[in-house]
């Protein structure tokens, strides 16, 4: 195997760990789930570092990495919602935003015949907020977190989810209008 494929291999392994993560959460093994979540998060940093540091970026990696991250977060949110640890409206908002982005990306691609996946700054803030909330909710199952912290984190996730989704819709709409002859 050539080393240039290492970032994509790490991404695929992170993909493969989503099902065990959901199983640990569903089985109530929260400390193990939190550890696995941390490993998966660290693997995201490592594959990104390797790809950029050694110029091992690839078109496949540009597609797989965000897909892997989204799969991990969406499955985590669905499981936490199913367990009653996150409110359904928040899980629905997070998933609806991602669906809007996917549909918008496809529409943009068909209008402009090109699509470059480039997350916006508000999208990155939203991803960090979603990760912090997931970690806090999982950790709260064996540590103590006040309701005020959980409510504040949920508000931040909802606000950045809505802002990020609207930002993508407005920006891609503008770019699609500019791309038309």
Relative helix content: over 70%
- Biggest β-sheet strands, sense, barrel: none
Rounded to the nearest angstrom, the radius of gyration is 17 Å
Runs in which pLDDT lies below 50 for 5 or more consecutive residues are: none
User: Beta-sheet strand percentage?
Assistant: under 5%
Q: Which word captures the global form?
A: globular
Structural class per helix/strand content? Answer: mainly alpha
Tally of helical segments: 7
Q: What is the residue-mean pLDDT, rounded to a whole number? A: 89
Give the SSE string: HHHHHHH
| Secondary structure: number of strands | 0
Distance between the termini: 46 Å
Explain this structure:
With 181 residues, the chain is mostly helical. Helices cover 80% and strands 0% of the residues. Helix 2 (18-26) packs antiparallel against helix 3 (30-53). It is globular. It starts with 5 loop residues before the first helix and ends with a helix. The mean pLDDT is 89.
What does this entry show, briefly?
This protein has seven helices and no strands. With 181 residues, the protein is mainly α.
What labels describe this entry?
single chain; 7 helices; globular; mainly alpha; 181 residues
Task: Show the helix and strand layout.
Blueprint: H1 6-16, H2 18-26, H3 30-53, H4 59-82, H5 88-112, H6 121-139, H7 147-179
Helix pairs in contact: 1-3, 1-4, 2-3, 2-4, 4-5, 4-6, 5-7, 6-7
């Amino acid at each position: 195997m050539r080393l240039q494929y290492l970032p994509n291999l790490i991404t695929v392994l992170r993909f493969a760990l989503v099902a065990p993560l959901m199983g640990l959460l569903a089985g109530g093994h929260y400390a193990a789930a939190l550890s696995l979540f941390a490993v998966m998060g660290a693997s995201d940093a490592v594959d990104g570092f390797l790809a950029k540091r050694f110029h091992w970026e690839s078109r496949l990696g540009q597609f797989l990495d965000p897909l892997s991250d989204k799969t991990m977060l969406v499955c985590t949110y669905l499981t936490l919602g199913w367990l009653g640890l996150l409110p359904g409206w928040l899980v629905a908002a997070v998933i609806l935003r991602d669906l809007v982005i996917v549909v918008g990306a496809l529409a943009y691609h068909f209008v402009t015949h090109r699509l470059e996946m480039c997350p916006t700054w508000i999208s990155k803030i939203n991803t960090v907020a979603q990760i912090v909330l997931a970690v806090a909710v999982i950790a709260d199952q064996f540590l103590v977190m006040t309701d005020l912290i959980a409510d504040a984190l949920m508000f931040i996730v909802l606000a950045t989810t809505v802002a990020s989704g609207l930002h993508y819709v407005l920006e891609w709409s503008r770019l699609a209008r500019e791309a038309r002859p």
